[in-house]
């Protein structure tokens, strides 16, 4: 028996037959420049870009259906690479110098891949996105049908699950994997926050990265256990105990959990659509801490009706009978454009018309329709668990405008004789302004929920989509931690609960820190619920609070990481 180590990505365990994954494209040496027709090659490059763009749009739609809208946005970044003028100009220049289109693509993209890999942290991980786009273009240029079709994992024995081994996997490779067929993923390189890793977690596929060249000691056909929580790979040609370990799956903790000294912390699931309901229930989630409603408005030509929205919300309430379900009102704009709404083109959409700003102004009609559906759902059979929160609130007048809209809609429903109820109301804390007036916000609502993805972006003044500044978009920077603590203190002063629904909440390595910061609820992708629940049960509140205090006093993110 051989044991290898790496960095765990998905806190689950899988067992299967090893299979190496290789989609290497060998172009050979380029022909002499004088026999290359630049006009033909430029035309071939443009045709490949168009085909790649269409394929990426299809993959985005598939990913949205399978794992959620937020994860599907990964493919939007790939389309941006196709249209990046630095890249396209480089390819076109190489073609004009006498290279065939395929060789020009490889040369240009490889130069940018090297630049990314020379950077630190998440920037280096984004090199895989460039490789993904590069290889898609190359397969199109050499007429490989896999360029427009998902990667396959069929094997000689369809009854056996496989553990996929690779130097690295691209997001496209990962998005189309079948969790019923793939028992695990192990790669030499890659990172825990890479797009491929995010997709593996969303698909609940056990995954480990950064194993290095030692991975080559595993051969096709070996039987492999992948422990995606501890980053452990066990190789044994025939070990029934290993298979039993994997088949036992993660220990699901149904019902509430407490720290070793009795502090209850709710562990809920984030949902990007009703298709994610079953995994969330099966994970042992205590409820839903974030139900994103944007999926109802996307991939269609008209907005959803009031009844469609009512049905979607009541489906979630029925699945989590007796538990709390937090629905976020429509958060479009910024990185979530909806073509049929004709939103304005803005030079910096993250600082423009989005979230509650659109709901109270340009699209108040959509907001009121959604509120009608939500207030009706609050009066449904299991509606007493419904909570509604408003996104991107920055001022007290915005909050008061949203609360007045709820009152107006309730009055209209009452006049019509339509059964309805007022749900618990809250605010997402995503902006520095919301943090600084959190005490006043807490006076007016029943709960606060910290969205760390956007809060980090705004506190650190960094576009979360910026590759060049990726390391700044990290919630472990002390200013972000202090913003979280200030929000918790404001909530405590008014006796309202404070939760967290950003990606930070689902990292088991950060659970002790978040307990110490005083969060009442953590909401995350369903796959990480069991691991976070276990970490809570292993945590001492006193130790967690001591850790949090030391982290808050740190000067740098690296100091915080060293404490963890």
Blueprint of the fold:
Blueprint: E1 2-5, E2 7-10, E3 13-20, H1 38-67, H2 69-72, H3 74-83, H4 85-96, H5 101-117, H6 122-125, H7 127-141, E4 162-166, H8 171-175, E5 182-187, H9 195-202, E6 207-209, E7 223-227, E8 232-235, H10 240-248, E9 257-258, E10 264-271, H11 277-282, E11 287-292, H12 306-319, E12 324-328, H13 356-359, H14 364-378, E13 386-390, H15 396-416, E14 424-429, H16 432-436, H17 438-442, E15 447-450, H18 452-459, H19 478-494, E16 497-500, H20 511-517, E17 521-524, H21 529-537, H22 541-553, H23 557-563
Parallel strand pairs: 3-4, 4-5, 5-6, 10-11, 10-17, 11-12, 12-13, 13-14, 14-15, 15-16, 16-17
Antiparallel strand pairs: 1-8, 2-6, 3-7, 7-8, 9-10
In short:
It contains 23 helices and 17 strands. About 1% of the residues have low confidence.
Explain this structure to me?
The protein starts with a strand and ends with a helix. α12 (306-319) links the parallel β11 and β12. Helix content is 43%, strand content 15%. It is globular and about 80 Å long. It has helices at residues 38-67, 69-72, 74-83, 85-96, 101-117, 122-125, 127-141, 171-175, 195-202, 240-248, 277-282, 306-319, 356-359, 364-378, 396-416, 432-436, 438-442, 452-459, 478-494, 511-517, 529-537, 541-553, 557-563, and strands at 2-5, 7-10, 13-20, 162-166, 182-187, 207-209, 223-227, 232-235, 257-258, 264-271, 287-292, 324-328, 386-390, 424-429, 447-450, 497-500, 521-524. The chain is α/β, with parallel strands linked by helices and 564 residues long. α1 (38-67) crosses α7 (127-141) and α20 (511-517) crosses α22 (541-553). An 8-stranded mixed sheet has the order 1-8-7-3-4-5-6-2. It has an 8-stranded parallel β-barrel with strand order 10-11-12-13-14-15-16-17, surrounded by 5 helices.
């Amino acid at each position: 028996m051989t044991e290898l180590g790496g960095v765990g990505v998905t806190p689950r365990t899988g067992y299967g037959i090893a299979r190496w994954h290789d989609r290497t494209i060998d172009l050979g040496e380029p022909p002499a420049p004088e026999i290359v027709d630049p006009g033909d090659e430029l035309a071939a490059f443009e045709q490949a870009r168009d085909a790649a763009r269409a394929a990426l749009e299809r993959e985005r739609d598939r990913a949205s259906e399978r794992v959620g809208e937020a994860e599907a946005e990964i493919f939007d970044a790939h389309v941006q690479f196709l249209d990046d003028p630095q890249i396209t100009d480089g390819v076109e220049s190489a073609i004009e110098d006498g290279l065939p289109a395929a060789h020009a693509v490889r040369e240009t993209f490889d130069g940018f891949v090297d630049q990314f890999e020379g950077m630190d942290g998440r920037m280096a991980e984004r090199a895989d996105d460039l490789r993904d786009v590069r290889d898609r273009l190359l397969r199109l240029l050499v007429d490989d049908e896999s360029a427009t079709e998902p990667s396959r994992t069929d094997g000689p024995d369809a009854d056996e699950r496989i553990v996929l081994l690779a130097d690295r996997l691209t997001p496209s490779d990962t998005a189309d994997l079948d969790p019923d067929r793939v028992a695990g993923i192990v790669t030499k390189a890659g990172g825990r926050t890479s797009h491929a890793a995010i997709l593996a977690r969303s698909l609940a596929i056990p995954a480990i990265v950064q194993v290095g060249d030692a991975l080559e000691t595993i051969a096709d056909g070996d039987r492999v256990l992948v422990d995606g929580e501890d980053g452990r790979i066990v190789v044994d040609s025939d070990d029934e105990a290993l298979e039993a370990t994997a088949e036992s799956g993660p220990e699901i903790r149904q019902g509430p959990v407490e720290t070793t000294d009795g502090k209850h912390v709710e562990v809920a699931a984030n949902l990007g659509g009703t298709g994610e309901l079953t995994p969330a229930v099966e994970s042992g989630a205590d409820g839903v801490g974030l139900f994103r409603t944007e999926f109802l408005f996307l991939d269609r030509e008209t907005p959803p009706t009031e009844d469609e929205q009512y049905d979607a919300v009541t489906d979630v309430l029925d699945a989590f009978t007796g538990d709390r379900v937090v629905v976020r009102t429509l958060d479009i704009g910024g990185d979530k454009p909806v073509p049929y709404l004709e939103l304005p083109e803005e030079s910096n959409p993250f600082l423009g018309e989005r979230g509650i700003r659109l709901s109270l102004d340009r699209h108040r009609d959509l907001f009121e329709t959604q509120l009608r559906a939500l207030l009706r759902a609050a009066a449904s059979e299991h509606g007493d668990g419904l909570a509604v929160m408003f996104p991107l609130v920055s001022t007290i007048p915005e909050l008061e405008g949203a609360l007045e809209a709820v009152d107006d809609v309730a009055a209209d429903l009452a006049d019509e004789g339509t059964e309805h109820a007022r749900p618990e109301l809250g605010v997402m804390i995503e902006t520095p302004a919301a943090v600084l007036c959190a005490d006043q916000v807490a006076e007016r609502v029943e709960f606060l929920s910290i969205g760390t993805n956007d809060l980090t972006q705004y506190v650190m003044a960094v576009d979360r989509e910026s590759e060049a500044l990726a390391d700044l978009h990290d919630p472990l920077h002390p200013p972000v931690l202090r913003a979280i603590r200030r929000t918790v203190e404001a909530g405590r002063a008014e006796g309202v609960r404070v939760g967290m629904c950003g990606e930070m909440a689902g990292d088991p390595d950060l659970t002790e820190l978040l307990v110490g910061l005083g969060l009442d609820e953590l909401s995350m992708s369903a796959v990480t619920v069991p691991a976070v629940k276990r970490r809570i049960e292993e945590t001492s509140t006193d130790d967690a609070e001591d850790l949090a205090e030391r982290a808050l006093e740190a000067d740098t993110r690296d100091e915080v990481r060293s404490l963890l």
